[in-house]
Amino acid sequence: MNETLITAQTANAARSNEVVLHIDNLSKHYGKRLAVNSLSLDVHRGDIFGFLGPNGAGKTTTIRMALGLIAPSEGKVEILGQDVATQRARILPRVGALIETPALYLYMSGRDNLRAIGATLGGVSNARMDEVLGLVGLLKRQKDRVRTYSLGMKQRLGVAIALLQNPDLLILDEPANGLDPAGIVEMRDLMHRLAQEGKTVFISSHQLSEVQQICTRVAIINFGKLVTESTVEALTEGKREYAVKVERAQEALRLVKAQTWGCDAYLEADGTLITRAPDDRGRNLNLFLMQAGFVADSIGQATQDLEQVFLKLTDNVQGDVA
Q1: Which residue, 87, 88, 147, 212, is most buried by CB atoms nearer than 10 A?
Q2: Does pTM surpass 0.70?
Q3: CA angle 149, 150, 151 (to 5 degrees)
Q4: Is the Cβ–Cβ distance between 195 and 11 less than 8 Å?
Q5: pLDDT for 209 beyond 50
Q6: How does 218-248 read in b/e, with b if 16+ C-beta sit within 10 Å?
Q7: Is the pLDDT of residue 266 over 50?
Q8: What element of type H or E holds 157?
Q9: Residues 6 or more apart from 316 whose CB is under 8 A from it?
Q10: How is 107-128 classified by DSSP, letter by letter?
C-alpha cells in the first residue's frame, strides 16, 4: 500500500460528522457582476478540504466572506455552528488564516513577528512560539530578519502566524506558494498532522497534483458556481476505460466510436485511445481491435489525475460571470 493511500485513509479516519464550516447559499454581487453564485458547502472536522477553481472563479471572494472580511449579498457562513456575520469577534479567534501573501514586518526577526502579532491577540507564550516555529521548520532561522527569508520561508512564517492560537479551523490560500520540493513535502506532512489532531484545514490552491496528495475532499467552482464536491478518490477513480497505444489511432477511434460500448471514446494529445471495452473486459477490446486489423502496442486501464478532471469540468461549464 503506497504512502499517499495510507495518509488519505488516516485523514479519513480522523474526519468526524461535526460541521466546522457551513456555507449556505452564499452569493456576492459587485454591481452587475456575480462573483459568487448561490454556493453551499459543508466542511467537517478532520477534513483537509481543497477549494479549487480557475482564476476569477470566486475562491478568494468566498474565503473573504467566510472570514467576515466582506459581507455577502445573500446567504450566510457559520463556523463551529455560529453565524460569522453576528458572532465574528467570538468565533474568529478559533480560526487561523493565511490569505494571499502574508503581511510581515520585514525589518524584524521571524520570532519577533510572532511576538508582535501575538501581542495583538492578547499575548502568546514562548513555548507556543517555539512549537509553531518547529512545526513550520523555522526554528533555526527564527532570529534572522524576515527580509532575508526566501518566499517559501515567508509563506511558512505566515502559516506559523495562522497557527499561533491553536485554531480549530485553518484557512490557507496557496500555502505552498514559493516552497521548494522539500518545503512542499513538509507542508503536506504538517497538514496531515493537523488533521489527525482533529483540526480542519481548508486550502485554496492551483497546485492540483499537491491537492490530490493532501486533500480528502475537494470542491471545484467556476464562474462563482459549484461544479462538483466529492472525495478526491471518487473524482480520480477510473471509469472502466482503457488506454490503448495503437498505430493508425484515428482510424481505430472511428471504428470504436461506431460501437455502442465505444461511443464516448476519444484520443488524448499524445495519440492514446481512451475507450470503454466490450463487456468492460480489456481482453475483449484487444480481440476486437485485432480482428479489425489493429494490433495494440499496449492496453491498460486508464487513470486520470485531478488536473485532468479539473480541466474537463471547468472547460465544460459556462456562466455569466467574468
Answers
A1: 212
A2: yes
A3: 120
A4: yes
A5: yes
A6: bbbbbbbbbbbbeebeebbeeeebbbbebee
A7: yes
A8: helix 151-163
A9: none
A10: TSBHHHHHHHHHHHTT---HHH
If we measure between CA atoms, which residue out of 59, 50, 40 comes closest to residue 223?
A: 59
CA 290: distance to chain centroid?
42
| Section 204-225 average pLDDT | 90
* Cα distance between residue 181 and residue 192, in whole Å: 17
Q: How confident is the model at residue 237 (pLDDT cuts 50, 70, 90)?
A: confident
Mean local confidence (pLDDT), 214-228: 93
Half-sphere exposure of 115 (CA within 13 A, CB side): 10
The DSSP annotation for 188-220 comes to HHHHHHHHHTT-EEEEE-S-HHHHHHH-SEEEE
- Contacts of the segment 293-297: beta carbons below 8 A, 24+ positions apart: 294/246, 294/247, 294/248, 294/251, 294/252, 294/255, 295/246, 295/247, 296/244, 296/245, 296/246, 297/245, 297/246, 297/247
Banded pLDDT at 318 (limits 50, 70, 90): very low
The interaxial angle of helices 151-163 and 181-196, nearest 10 deg, is 10
- Per DSSP, the three-state class of 76 is strand
CB 62 within 8 A of CB 26: yes
Q: Could you tell me which residues are beta bridge partners of residue 275?
A: 242
CATH number for region 3-236: 3.40.50.300
What is the tens place of the pLDDT at every residue in 47-101?
A: 999 999 998 899 999 999 999 999 999 999 999 999 999 999 999 889 999 887 7
Q: Is 154 helix (H, G, I), strand (E, B) or coil?
A: helix
Give span(s): CATH 3.40.50.300, the chain.
3-236
pLDDT at 150 over 50: yes
